[in-house]
Specification:
single chain, about 0% strand
Amino acid sequence: MSANAAFRAGQYDLALQEAAGERSADAHALRARVILAKVMCSGREPDIAALKQALAAAEAALKLDEGHGEGRLQKAIALSLLTRPMNLSEANDSGYGPKARVLAEAVLEDDPANHYALGFLAVWHVEVHRRGGTLGAAVMGASLTTARANYAEAVRLAPQDAGLRWQWARALAAYDPKKYHAEIAAELEEALAIDPQTDLDRVMQGRAAELLEVVESRKPREIEKTAQAML
């Protein structure tokens, strides 16, 4: 089984074994992607050591090819996850938050149809608003209008990506579940209606089902707390 096939099947340790002998930029970026998928599927708060391993793999890809799209995107995701326990000020001071945005935007400059980068940026803008409020968002240059434009384009390009819809719904639920209640429920239902293409898709759909139950039965504060605790 190839490393990519093992990744799609959710056999992450096998995928890492299969990719271990190759030192190309593609292989390093795939290792970063596999490690991050394993972190996302763990059901626990992200392990910092694992995130740093993913970051190192992505940086190894970029050392070989500084414009490598997948390497830049996986580095952005790793940096973003490293900011998860931080408040907005800490994330800004660390440099991780701004760097993640710059990396994803650079991917889009080279590949405007990269729906992963569009989805990442859509969530990034919402997360900055959630953490920093209007003032913090202004300082960081975050915009809900931009978030919506990025997400709309991502969905247009990849309407059958369950993870894309899950992450957008989760971000909105963590930000303002009362205001966006109907949209959150609709996006979660869309995520659940998609035929999953990878094991990671199935995991994301499981979380979508879990959050949808909370959205339909709990108060906004409980929805918010649940969404904030999820990946």
